[in-house]
Amino acid sequence: MPGAVDRIELRKVSDSLEDRYTKPIDSEKDITDSQFLDDNEDGESQKFLSNGLMKKKKYEEYHEEYHPGHTSFGMSVFNLSNAIMGSGILGLSYAMANTGILLFSFLLVAVAILSLYSVHLLLMTAKEGGSLIYEKLGERAFGWPGKIAAFGSIIMQNIGAMSSYLFIVKYELPEVIRAFLGLEEISGEWYLNGNYLVVFVSIGIILPLSLLKNLGYLGYTSGFSLCCMVFFLCVMIYKKTQLPCPLPFFYHHSSNLSMNGSDMSGLYSPRNNEEMCTPKYFVFNSQTAYTVPILAFAFVCHPEVLPIYSELKDRSRKKMQNVSNLSIMMMLIMYMMSALVGYLTFYENVEAELLHTFTKVYKFDTMLLLVRLAVLTAVTLTVPIVLFPIRSSITTLLFSGREFSWIRHLLIAAAILAFNNILVIFVPTIRDIFGFIGSSAATMLIFILPAAFYIRLVKSVPFRSPQKIGAAVFLVVGVIFMIGSLSLIVLDWIHNPPGSSGGH
């Protein structure tokens, strides 16, 4: 009986699509049945559906893939913003210290604009390529190699992102517990061991949230996560007004910073003070090579764009582009403010993770303790959103065409989390992983794949048109950037082997 109903529904879809060119859309049911025709005023959709895609097999695919969305515009913005905003926000001050204010600002804005253009290419390709799944676009553009390229890039990028979040849990949660217990140093108790804590958080919080069937439900946790990061930024700005420059702590070991003016006097000559507290606008050193990959990594949201698009209520390409524009603009402002505040507080003494620099100054500060809790909450709630595209990629590659299974849904999520936990527990440093993933997977997802898919699949635009030429230039820039970044990072590894500088 259900099969008969499905056939009747598919026939209705077929009739509505065939009638589209002979009569106007005048009923709500027609709009619902042709959900993928999202922009009625956009001729590309009509061309896309009329381009030899009237077969019953294709209708069955639409019926399965292009379900009506139920996530509001606001929730979609929260989800995409949360997908963009990662642990990278804690390392942007360090990146600014190694590039200078002006160079960093230029690179940050440039990567944000390129990311927006890339999302535009991806949405155009999804419309004409006939799929809202990244791997299927790759398959339709270049066959099996395209599918594997998309799959590998998404897996690498998102596993790197998940690992960065879990690294923060591993290193920050023991410090928070220690501060709550009032301990001067972390002792050997199991509940102060980051390796145990990251496993408990993964099983107790992340795994249950990862079992939700749709991304839309995570909009509430995404909104709360973004509020946590706004709170983090506000406290950083407040602390900047309270801290003197230069900070005696970095040259005289003490358990806490006293704000008495007498403690500052006589420690430095005026000349040293002025040099140490003067911002640099252009900086080039061995760490500068990591800056652009880190920024690329910070703006990659492309694996989440299509899943969020597929669940957007009353979806249209224009509406999803507005979701992307607003999300990336919000994150650009937060990134810029966070980098500036951290750099102008500690200058060249800022560490790779901003919170660690603050905790060297304030051992038991209540407001900073709340900030650490807020950041921990934010990254913990972001992990399930990053896990969704990984599971979707694995399902598409290995279980395409099969019915949804809760057991498979659970097992894939558990396996992904287990792998990331192993990575976080046994890999001592993540800076080099960030550099490699930012140069390879992030570059593939921002530059190379969207441009290549657009050139191959969008037939409505002539090859010599400005749009196609722009996409081709974008593709070439991506290839040059990938080769250049990887070369610089490998050279840095040769001269400064990973792990030799310590830290995480």
From TrEMBL:
<feature type="transmembrane region" description="Helical">
    <location>
        <begin position="469"/>
        <end position="491"/>
    </location>
</feature>
<feature type="transmembrane region" description="Helical">
    <location>
        <begin position="190"/>
        <end position="211"/>
    </location>
</feature>
<feature type="transmembrane region" description="Helical">
    <location>
        <begin position="433"/>
        <end position="457"/>
    </location>
</feature>
<feature type="transmembrane region" description="Helical">
    <location>
        <begin position="73"/>
        <end position="94"/>
    </location>
</feature>
<feature type="transmembrane region" description="Helical">
    <location>
        <begin position="323"/>
        <end position="346"/>
    </location>
</feature>
<dbReference type="InterPro" id="IPR013057">
    <property type="entry name" value="AA_transpt_TM"/>
</dbReference>
<feature type="transmembrane region" description="Helical">
    <location>
        <begin position="366"/>
        <end position="388"/>
    </location>
</feature>
<feature type="transmembrane region" description="Helical">
    <location>
        <begin position="217"/>
        <end position="238"/>
    </location>
</feature>
<feature type="transmembrane region" description="Helical">
    <location>
        <begin position="148"/>
        <end position="169"/>
    </location>
</feature>
<dbReference type="Pfam" id="PF01490">
    <property type="entry name" value="Aa_trans"/>
</dbReference>
<protein>
    <submittedName>
        <fullName>Solute carrier family 38 member 4</fullName>
    </submittedName>
</protein>
<dbReference type="GO" id="GO:0005886">
    <property type="term" value="C:plasma membrane"/>
</dbReference>
<keyword id="KW-0472">Membrane</keyword>
<keyword id="KW-1133">Transmembrane helix</keyword>
<feature type="transmembrane region" description="Helical">
    <location>
        <begin position="101"/>
        <end position="123"/>
    </location>
</feature>
<keyword id="KW-0812">Transmembrane</keyword>
<dbReference type="GO" id="GO:0015179">
    <property type="term" value="F:L-amino acid transmembrane transporter activity"/>
</dbReference>
<feature type="domain" description="Amino acid transporter transmembrane">
    <location>
        <begin position="71"/>
        <end position="488"/>
    </location>
</feature>
<feature type="transmembrane region" description="Helical">
    <location>
        <begin position="409"/>
        <end position="427"/>
    </location>
</feature>
